[in-house]
Amino acid sequence: xxxFVAIEISNNDILQKxxxxxxxxxxxxxxxxxxxxxxxxxxxxEIDQEKCEKVQDVLxxxxxxxxxxxxxxxxxxxxxxxxxxxxxxxxxxxxxxxIEITKEIEMKLTPLGFKKDKKFKPHLTILRVKHKIDDxxxxxxxxxxxxxxxxxxxxxxxxxxxxxxxGPEYSDLLEIKGNEK
Length: 181
Fold this sequence. Notes:
Strand 4 and strand 5 form a beta hairpin. Helix content is about 25%, strand content about 35%. It is built from four helices and nine strands; from the N terminus they run βαββαββαβαβββ.
């Protein structure tokens, strides 16, 4: 099964603003389904049931305190002149907390044979650009400082992804709850 560790966005006001932004974009890009907006902390790829159980055991040892993330700004990877992904960024303090949790997850999963993903850059993917498009940096300028709101991060999820012609379908394998603030 194809798996990853993630933090989902559940704040309806934020999701509504993201949906509005996705609809206001006027270039060819595929929006990420609103119920699938998340931060990927570590992509684990294809694993069997035995490894899945070991991962769950390791993830159950992770402890963290709930924290806030303020979502703001829009950018693109690798850049807005030739984007493949359009993303939403987060505030510095929230990014530091996400990086801290990600490092702990990576460290604890390394003994199971998982290698570190590329350098973790906290972002929410909201659009995927399948075919080359023109430079959109001017069009996206108005969204550089847009604020989407604040999300309380209270759980980390271990998720399964099933690829289909309609796009990926996600389901939860495990939920790790953070300690109350």
